[in-house]
Write a structure and sequence with these properties.
Elements (H helix, E strand, L loop, with lengths): L9 E2 L12 E3 L1 E2 L2 E7 L2 E3 L3 H4 L7 E6 L2 E5 L11 E4 L9 H19 L11 E2 L6 E2 L6 E2 L4 E10 L2 E7 L10 E4 L6 H13 L3 E12 L4 E10 L12 E8 L12 H23 L1
C-alpha cells in the first residue's frame, strides 16, 4: 500500500528545528502540491530552489536522513516546479517521497485550519516540545486531527459488492466507505454505512487492517462482512452512482499497490479462490 516504502524509514516524531536552505519544502495550494514531475518521478524543491525563507518553515518529518518542512507562505510555480494534483502522488515515484507528500498534505491542512483559537479567537502558538498548537490566552491545546473511517467489503456467496462514488472525479470501482460518527464504534459504522448506502443488513463483521490516508486526513480501517438476508440493493444516490453485485473473478487484478480498498478487493478474491480449491479437494 501507499505507506509501504520498503527499506526507507518514515520518521514522524516531532523536532523543533530550524530549516536550512538545502532542506526540502512541502508546499500546497488548492488541492495541489508543488513538485518537479518528470516521467513519473517527483522531487520537492529546497528552500534555496524556491528562494524561500528557511526560518518560516515548519518541521514536518524526515524520510531517512532528509528533513522535510511545510512552507505555508504563498509560492508561485516556475519552469522547474509546478503545482500538480495530489492524486498524482498515488502512483509517482519514489514511493517514499510520494507518501511523504500525502502525509504532508494532512499536516498542511491542519496547520492552515488552526491559526486562531476556537475558544477565544487568540492567535495560536507552536509548541516547541511536541506537535501541538496552544493558546497563550486561555490555554487551549490542539493536536493534529485524525478522522477514523471504515472501508467495507461486503460479500455474498460468489459475489462481492462494488460501488462508484457520485459527484467525484474518482470513478473507479470502490467499496462501501464512510467516517465514524461521534459515540460510534468502528463496527457500528460498518453496519450503518452499508445500510445507508446500499440498504443491506450484514453479519460476520471481521477487522482486516488499517491505513493512514493523508488525502482526507483519515485513518482507514478495513472490514470484511457478509450480506444478511435480502440482497436487493437500494443505493443512496447522493453518495453513490453505482452499487452492484459482481463476480469474485472481477477482483483478480484490482490491487493497485496503493490503497487499502484495492488490497481488500484482492484479498476477497484470494479468499474465495482458496475456498473453492478446498471445496474441490473435499469432493
Amino acid at each position: 500500500m501507499l505507506q509501504d516504502i520498503g527499506s526507507h524509514r518514515f520518521r514522524n516524531e516531532y523536532h523543533h528545528i530550524q530549516a536550512d536552505r538545502s532542506d526540502l519544502c512541502l508546499v500546497y495550494r488548492n488541492g495541489r502540491v508543488l513538485v518537479k514531475y518528470t516521467d513519473g518521478e517527483i522531487s520537492y524543491p529546497t528552500f534555496e530552489k524556491l528562494g524561500a525563507h528557511p526560518e518560516k518553515g515548519i518541521y514536518a518529518f524526515a524520510v531517512d536522513d532528509n528533513h522535510l518542512f511545510l512552507y505555508l507562505e504563498k509560492v508561485e510555480e516556475n519552469k522547474e516546479y509546478t503545482y500538480e494534483p495530489l492524486n498524482l502522488l498515488r502512483e509517482a515515484r519514489p514511493r517514499e517521497m510520494s507518501y511523504a507528500g500525502v502525509v504532508g498534505n494532512h499536516l498542511n491542512q491542519w496547520y492552515r485550519d488552526n491559526v486562531f483559537c476556537g475558544s477565544c479567537a487568540a492567535r495560536l502558538v507552536h509548541d516547541t516540545k511536541e506537535r501541538m498548537l496552544y493558546c497563550p490566552d486561555c490555554g487551549n491545546k490542539i493536536y493534529p486531527k485524525i478522522c477514523p473511517a471504515v472501508i467495507v467489503c461486503v460479500t455474498h456467496k460468489d459475489k462481492v459488492l462494488l460501488t462508484k462514488y457520485a459527484g467525484r472525479s474518482y470513478q473507479k470501482y470502490a467499496l462501501i466507505a464512510g467516517f465514524t460518527e461521534i459515540g460510534e464504534t468502528a463496527e457500528e459504522t460498518v453496519s450503518r454505512e452499508v445500510m445507508e448506502e446500499v440498504g443491506l443488513k450484514i453479519k460476520n463483521i471481521t477487522y482486516y487492517k488499517s491505513q493512514p490516508w493523508g488525502f482526507s486526513g483519515g485513518l482507514l480501517m478495513g472490514f470484511f462482512c457478509e450480506a444478511d438476508g435480502d440482497t436487493e440493493i437500494t443505493i443512496d444516490t447522493n453518495e453513490l452512482s453505482v452499487g452492484k453485485w459482481v463476480d469474485m473473478e472481477m477482483l483478480k487484478d484490482m490491487d493497485d499497490g496503493v490503497s487499502l480498498t484495492r488490497e481488500m478487493m484482492r484479498r476477497a478474491y484470494e479468499r474465495w479462490r482458496d475456498n473453492k480449491k478446498e471445496q474441490g479437494k473435499s469432493l
